[in-house]
Amino acid sequence: MARFVVAGPSEYLAITGWGIDDVKLAKKAWVWVGQQCMKFNISPENYEFNVQAMSSEKLAFNLPAVFAIGPKISHDSEEALLLYAKLIAPHNHTSNQHVKNLLKGVIEGETRVLAASMTMEEIFQGTKSFKDKVFEQVQLDLDKFGLDIYNANVKQLVDEPGHEYFSYLGQKTQQEAANQAKVDVAEERMKGEVGAKEREGLTLQNAAKVDAETKVLSVRQKGIGLKEEAKVKSEVQVYENEREAEIAAAQAGLAMKKAGWEKQSRVAQVEAVKAVAIREAELQMEVERKNALRLTEKLKAEQLSKANVQYETQVQESNAALYDRQKAAEATLYEQVKSAEARKAQADAKFFEQKLAEDARMYAKQKEAEALATVGKAKAEYMASMLQAVGGDYNALRDYLMIDGGMYQEMARINASAVTGMQPKISIWSNGGEAGAGAMQQVAGVYKMLPPLLSTVHEQTGMMPPAWLGSLPKDGSN
User: Fold this and answer.
1) In DSSP terms, which residues pair with 66 in a beta bridge?
2) Alpha-carbon gap, residue 19 to 13, rounded angstroms
3) What's the rounded mean pLDDT across residues 61-70?
4) Distance in angstroms (rounded) separating the CA atoms of residues 161 and 40
5) Cβ(120)–Cβ(59) under 8 Å?
6) What's residue 436's pLDDT?
7) CA distance linking residue 354 with residue 362, whole number of Å
8) Looking at 29-43, 75-89, 104-118, 175-189, which range is the least confident one?
9) Measuring CA to CA, which residue among 50, 79, 90, 239 is closest to residue 148?
10) N or C: which terminus of the chain carries fewer CB neighbours within 10 A?
11) Chain-wide mean pLDDT for the chain?
12) How many Å apart are CA 177 and CA 179, to the nearest integer?
């Protein structure tokens, strides 16, 4: 008997049995005795999954997804349909549930593996790329069963119960937007109020500015020359101080690196020496053990032909000799180990002492460099403040520094020491008149000596006296 079977528009026939080696696919065919025919639908079906996964930070989340999956239709080959037919053949009545369970296992496995290699932020920010990677890996596994993903859609990531990462993240975003809106409103209100005040003040400022600029311009032009000169000198001094500080810092860094390299070299040398000593001790112990075993075997071979009593006696003697040698070897090994430990302790103590010395020298150099930098900075700030205090007058600053530093006293002391032991001609200047009696006369005499004294200082040093102290006498005057 035979029957003619026709498949529907979205169906295929899978025929096996007599006259067919494997499986025959057809849309219509005669089914003969000894053959079996099964219809299967090739329309894609929708499968909904709620995959539970965990990110690399051990944060759990749900990934709702909907897949449209069906047999792969190929015009060139029926291999994919054959794979699908073999997949559903043993489960003809429950094929849909069987395929769903298979797809669930594949999708959950690939999703969990991919999520475990990514952080939650990477998954959330790159949802599209994450979805594409999941679909790509799932499709590779579905190719083995002749299935194809026709469409797929991943819904919004959902928190696991007890893990509110996404909800907190949404609250954070909403709060940030609300705060930014409040800031924008306050900023616009501030701009309006400040703008009105600025317009009122600009009118008064511009009128006062014209009057002030007219008066200041003449005075400013006079001081520009002196200010520029002082500015250049101060910048040169600051630059020199900065270069000295950089040199000191570079030297300190070089010293630190040298100390580190020397430390590594010495540690490597100590480790090499200790490794050699340990290896020598191990080899010596192995040699002693081999010698003892060799002697034991030799004694056993020599005593085999003797009587049992003599044999037992020799065995005892051999055991005693072996025991003595073992004890001697253990004592030698113990001495070598203790000697190695003592050498190691000495090396460690020496290394620690050298390290402390190096640390102390490096710390001293570092503090010296910091002190030099601090002194230079303080001097620069002091000079700048003094120059500003005297209104940018460099000559007045120089005279003040000479007086404050005791330059005139030092010059008097040097002149006095130069004429010690000599018979100098000392002149006392006077205008010949009487300035009064007693203390007032002495004060008048000192005041009369100032012009000649200033002339002498000018001749010896070329320096002019400050304006507040007096001026040099003109030629021919006392």
Assistant:
1) 48, 153
2) 16
3) 79
4) 41
5) yes
6) 45
7) 12
8) 75-89
9) 79
10) N
11) 77
12) 5
φ/ψ (deg, to 5) at 128: -65, -45
Rounded distance between C-alpha atoms, residue 472 and residue 458, angstroms: 9
Kindly tell me the burial class for residue 107, based on how many C-beta atoms sit within 10 Å of its own C-beta (0-12, 13-18, 19 or more).
buried
Q: What is the pTM of this model?
A: 0.33
**Measured distance CA(251)–CA(260) in Å, rounded:** 14
Shortest CA distance to 109 belongs to which of 73, 134, 82, 83? Answer: 134
CA 81, CA 70: separation in Å to the nearest integer?
Answer: 10
Asked whether residue 172 carries a pLDDT value surpassing 80, the answer given is no
CATH number of this structure's domain 42-158? 3.30.479.30
Strand order in the sheet with 24-26: 24-26, 11-17, 35-41
Please write the tens of the pLDDT for every residue from 398-443. 777 778 777 777 877 887 777 666 655 555 545 555 444 555 666 6
Diameter over CA atoms, the chain? 168
Instruction: Please name the residues in contact with 43: beta carbons below 8 A apart, sequence gap of 6 or more.
Output: 10, 70
Q: Determine contact, residues 135/76, Cβ cutoff 8 Å.
A: no
Exposure string for 361-372, b = 16+ CB within 10 A, e = fewer: eeeeebeebeee
Q: Hey, what are 193's tokens?
A: 């109020």
Q: Give residue for tokens 């593996």.
A: 113
